[in-house]
Design goal:
The protein is built from 9 helices and 9 strands. With 299 residues, it is of the alpha/beta class. The longest helix is centred in the middle third of the chain and has 20 residues, at 170-189. Bound molecules: zinc ion (ZN).
Length: 299
């Protein structure tokens, strides 16, 4: 019986106990330098030395994009676990654990406020909540966000950060791709701008639906963006993939995205783009035209 049993113990990496208090310094995965975490926070979680973009939670995202106060929408929508799903752990327990650790009820936070004075609705995905996966609640919240944008005649922004559809909700999670896409099509017909911000990582069903549907698709530097992972693709096509495959810079070069913008310039770039799309006229001494009639110029 011992034929296939591992008798030797795997080598354990021995780390010396650190005398530095936990969480005061962060090691940058980009340049391996230690960064004081307050410096990192002040720099929008971008490494001041090598510009590595650390992952940011949804609430922090809204804070860095909105001018000041914002109103959160539908914060209490929760999944009902329609399939009564269990894998290594029950889906109900998984939801409960994620809610406790992130402080949000599902993997997206929607808020309305202003970006550089422009009234905007932003939906930001929360990666720490089951990999930012898109289930029924995420689909419903994003749909409601776009409906609210039509009601108020204001632009919509979605900050994508997701592993894709939520397996624990089966086909219902896949249906969200169609549902959100339909909601965004209505936004388009109402001639309102939608800007998609793709952050690390944006994969699976999210890439296959709303992440790529923006009037403008902006990515953060070096973000992993794709549908299937590189390993799966390599095994399928039996070819070695080029360097930087599925990273923002590669995708811009190949026409999949419009822009790669450093997080520190993101807010200004979005505001400029929204003004360009004439979501709202640029602040000027001239009398502002009525909002309802302002759309993109027809050709
Ligand atoms: Zn760094």
């Amino acid at each position: 019986m011992a034929w296939f049993k591992k008798t030797r113990k795997p080598i354990e990496a021995k780390e010396k106990p650190s005398r530095v208090p936990e969480g005061l310094w962060v090691k940058c995965p980009g340049c391996a330098q230690a960064i004081y975490n307050k410096d990192l926070a002040a720099n929008l979680n971008v490494c001041p030395k090598c510009a590595h973009h650390f992952r940011v939670n949804a609430t922090e995202r809204l804070r860095m994009l909105f001018d000041g106060e914002w109103v959160e929408h539908d914060p209490r929508l929760v999944s009902t676990d329609p399939l009564n799903f269990t894998d290594t752990k029950s889906y109900k327990a998984r939801l409960k654990a994620s809610q406790a650790s992130t402080g949000v009820k599902d993997a997206v936070v929607v808020g309305s406020g202003t970006i550089d004075g422009i009234e905007t609705i932003i939906a930001a995905q929360e990666y720490a909540f089951i990999g930012g996966s898109m289930g029924v609640v995420v689909g419903e919240k994003i749909t409601r966000a776009s409906e609210k944008a039509i009601e108020r005649r204001c632009p919509t922004i979605i900050v994508c950060c997701s592993g894709g559809a939520r397996m624990m909700e089966g086909a219902l999670s896949l249906m969200q791709m169609a549902k959100v896409s339909a909601a965004l099509a209505r936004l388009d017909r109402a001639r309102l701008p939608y800007v998609s911000i793709l952050t690390d990582p944006t994969t699976g069903g999210v890439t296959a639906s709303f992440a790529m549907l923006g009037d403008l698709n902006i990515a953060e530097p070096k973000a992993l963006i794709g549908f299937a992972g590189p390993r799966v693709i390599e095994q399928t096509i039996r070819q070695k993939l080029p360097d930087g495959f599925q990273r923002s810079e590669f995708l811009v070069e190949h026409g999949m995205l419009d822009l790669v913008v450093d997080r520190r310039d993101l807010k200004a770039s979005i505001a400029r783009a929204l003004r360009f799309m004439r979501a709202i006229p640029a602040p000027s001494p001239e009398p502002a035209p009525a909002l309802a009639g302002v759309g993109r110029e027809s050709t």
